[in-house]
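seq/struct pair 1
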Amino acid sequence: MSNFLSKSLARIKPSSTIAATQRARELAAQGRDVIALSTGEPDFETPEHVQVAAIRALTGGKTRYTPTHGIPELRDAVVEKFRRENGVVYTREEIIISNGGKQVIANAFMATLNEHDEVLIPAPYWVSYPELVALCGATSVIAETTAANGLKLTPEALERHITPQTKWVVLNSPGNPSGAAYTRDELRALAEVLLRHEHVWVMSDDIYEHLVYDAFEFATIAAVEPRLRERTLIVNGVSKAYAMTGWRIGYGAGPASLIKAMDVVQGQVTSAASSVAQWAAVAALQGPQDFLAARREVFKQRRDLVVDQLDACVGLACARPEGAFYVFPSCAGTFGKRAPSGKPIQDDATFALELLAAEGVSVVHGSAFGMPGHFRVSYAASTQSLVEACKRIQRFCAELSPC
C-alpha cells in the first residue's frame, strides 16, 4: 500500500486539533466524563435570521449548482462588508467564495506555490498552514515569537527571515492558537518591511476579526497600507463570528488575477460551495449585526475567567490575549513532575495526554502549533463547562509530585 500512496501524503500530518477533538468524542462515547476544550467552534446557535434565509433558499428552489467562485449576491455582500467594516474597496471579480476559509488558503497555495518556494509563518501558528504548504511541495520557514513581544511577529524577525525564495508571509490576527492580535501600528511597521521586498505576498487571515476585546481595534494590513493591496489576499468567513462552522463558507479577497487562478483550482477540486449555505451567508453579512457585540462580551467574560483560573494553577502561566477564543498557557513549569498516573511529564504532549487521562479535559499540546511548552484551550464552550474544566486543571496541577 505504501507504494500506492502519493509522495505528497508523506509530507503532511493529520490535524492535531481534529485528532484531539476526536479522541475526546471517543472517550465520551465510552462513558467518560470529558470536557472538550480542543476545538474552535462557538457554542452559540447560528442566528435565526440566517436560518430563515437558508429555509427560504431551500423552498425557493435555490438548490442547484452556482458559479464556481460563488453567487453574485454573496460576492457583492462581501464587497460591501469590506467597504463598510474595513475601508478596503474590492470589485466582485476580486472575491471568491469557498468551502470554508481553509479552502481559500489551500486554493491560494496550490495556485501559486512551486518547489523551492518559501512561506514565512510566525509561530505559534494554526496547524494547517505548514501542512498545506508542504502538500504543495514548498517550504515553510517558521519565525519564532516570544512572550515578550506578545507572541507576534516583529519587523526585525520578518526582515531576518525573508529570502529571495519567500513567496508569502502569513499573518493571522487575532491568531489561533494564541489569540494575539496586531495593532494598527504593529501592522504598519511590518508593512514597511514588506514594501522593501516586492516579491513577497501577504496572506492576511482575518477569520477572528469580530472577536477582539478591551477596546482593541481590529485592522487589516491592506487597509493600513494600501500599497500592499495588490499583493495581499484577505482570508475570512462566517464560521466564527456568526457561529456557522458547519455551513462551510469562507471567502477571499485579492487581485483579480490571483482570484481567477484560485477559481481554476477550486473548479477542479470541489466546484462551488453549497448554494443554500451561500444564501445563508448573504443574510449573515447583510442582516442585523447587533448580536455580535453581545456574543463578544460573553467571550470576553469567558476569556477573563479562564485566564484568571489557569494563571493561578501551579506550574502554569497564562497571558491575557487580545482576541479570538483561545488562550495559550505555558506548562513548562510542570515539566519534571510526576502525573497522578506515575508518568513523568516531560513535554507539552505528555501534559495534555495526562490531563485528559486524569481529569477528562481535552486540550491541544503546543508543539502542534510550532511552540513547545504550551497548550491551547478553547473557551468557545459554555461558561459552566469552563468553570468545571478550570477546577479540574487546577486539581491536576496541584496533584503533580516531584519525580
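seq/struct pair 2
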Amino acid sequence: MPVPQWWGVCEAKPGSRASALAPPARPARVRLPAPGEPVGFADHVKPLFREVDRKSMSFAFDLWSREDVAQHADAILHRLRQGTMPCDGAWSAEQVDLFARWITEGTAP
C-alpha cells in the first residue's frame, strides 16, 4: 500500500502545530471499554485524539470524524505503531492496542 502524501509532513498549516516553547500537551484520557464491551469511536477512539492532534491533521482529514478516521485507519495505525503520530510524542501501548481493536472490530460508531 503506498504511503499517502500527507504522511510526509506532520503539519502543513502555519500556526496549527504546537509551539516547541509551549507546555507539553496532556495525554488524552480515554475510558477503556469493559470486558466484552465493543470499542466505539465516540466513547473510546475520538477521545484519544486531542484538539492539537485534530488541528495538526486538519489539512488532510478530521481526526474527530469517524468516517475520516475509518478511511485512514490502517495508515494511522501504522504511524501510531511507529511512534511517529502524534508529532509530539507516542501513544501508550494500551492506546495503540485500543485503536487496533477498534479497527479489528469493524470501526464501530
